[in-house]
Each structure stands twice: as C-alpha cells, then as structure tokens.
Amino acid sequence: VVVVVVAKAMKPGFSSSFTDIFVLFCLRSSFIDCCVLHFIIRSFLFPFSLLLLLVLLSFTVWLILFISLWFISFFWIDLFFMNRFVAGILKQTTRRMTSFTFGTEVALTVPEAREKVIELLKPQGFGVLTEIDVQATLKKKLDKDTKPYIILGACNPKLASRALEHNPRIGALLPCNVIVYENESGKTVVDFMDPDVMQKMDGSDELKQIAGEAKELLSKVLEGLIE
User: Fold this and answer.
1) Model's pTM, two decimal places?
2) How does pLDDT run across 18-53, given as a tens digit for each residue?
C-alpha cells in the first residue's frame, strides 16, 4: 500500500485500476499472512508456551518439595544425634565408679534388679555360683534390721580357668561379685567388682588381658541395666 501511494504521488497518471488491484492484492496477501501467522501461533507457539509453563511450574513444585524434605530430614537427623548425645551424657552421669567397683542406680526394686542382673549375665557367659542375702543373714545372726543387700557371686568359667592357670592365688578374688542393694536415699544400686583389681595385684600382661575381657563383658551387663 505504501508503495502504491508513493507511486501515485510521484506519477499522477499512474493507472488507478492497477493501483486498486495492487492494493487489493497486498491486502489479500497481508490477510493470508496474518492467518498463517495466527495458525502458527495457535498450532505451535501456544502449545509450546503452555508446555514451557507446565515445565516451569513442575520444576518449581519439585524444588519446593526438595527444599522442604531437606529441611525436615536435617531437623530429624539433628534431633536424632542430639538425643543420642543427651542419652550418652545421661548414661555417663548415672554410672558410679570407685577404685574397685563400677555400677549404676536403677529404677527397680532390689528383687527386680537381682532378677535383671542374673538375666543379663547369662548371655555374657556368667553364671551365679553363690548368692548371699546380707539383710536376712544379719537379721538371723545379729537380730539387726538393715536395708536390702544381696551379693551375687558371678563366674565366667572360661575366664576363671585361664586366670587360675596363670596364678592360682587369683582364686582369692573370685568369683566376680555383683552387689545389689538399697542406698541411704532409698534407691537401688548395682555395683560390679572391677576385674582390673586382679591385674593390679599381679601386674602381668596375661592377667591384664583376662581382666580386660571380663570387664568388657560386665560392662555390657551394665549397659543393659542403664538402657
């Protein structure tokens, strides 16, 4: 159209009919081009744009979900390790140690703790050879009333045999006594004789190894009481 207008301005005698035909042709061509362009947009660009939008929305949703899961997992992992840390501190604070014993207070009565100790000793290879009810003995012999106090003579035959073969005098320290009693506060206490006492009296590497094995087994019994 612009070309025709310019031509008519430059040459006034320019054929009017030719101009009209040319204008109609240009308008028709423009209309067709617009239809084709509209068809292309509707057929290709619009679906592509819609697909791109869906992809972006999906990516955004997955990103939000990933960040949320990461924060949640981080929170639970942190909480898990914090609980383990606190539980470890509590276990350490409930343990009682002296130069010749180690043990803990338990939320059980003396009879219940006795049964629990015997039950936990068996998987570690210990049997109870002797049991002394100190409270009943003192009442019978001296007519004296005391708090509940039980001495369990625990023995691991394999370890005892090795220790006696190395030094027969070690028998004076056997069996490994476990005491279950009620303290002044009314709480139940379980104490184990520390096998390291035998090693300190002998000083040999062989007995040190045996004492270490015995202490490790008895420590597992202690862990069972604390849990």
Assistant:
1) 0.60
2) 445 444 445 455 555 555 555 555 555 556 666 777
**Token pair of 224 as six digits:** 């069972």
Question: What is the tens place of the pLDDT at every residue in 93-133?
Answer: 467 788 899 999 999 999 999 999 999 999 999 999 999 99
* Long-range pairs, 181-185, Cβ under 8 A, ≥24: 181/110, 181/134, 181/147, 181/148, 181/149, 181/150, 182/110, 182/147, 182/148, 182/149, 183/105, 183/147
Give me the percent of the chain exceeding a pLDDT of 70: 68
Q: What is the 3-state secondary structure (H, E, C) of the chain?
A: CHHHHHHHHHCCCCCHHHHHHHHHHHHHHHHHHHHHHHHHHHHHHHHHHHHHHHHHHHHHHHHHHHHHHHHHHHHHHHHHHHHHHHHHHHHHHHEEECCCEEEEEECCCHHHHHHHHHHHHHHHCCEEEEEEEHHHHHHHHHCCCCCCEEEEEEECHHHHHHHHHHCHHHHHHCCEEEEEEECCCCCEEEEEECCHHHHHHHCCHHHHHHHHHHHHHHHHHHHHHHC
Provide the 10 A C-beta neighbour count for residue 188.
20
- Cα distance between residue 152 and residue 106, in whole Å: 17
pLDDT at 82: 60
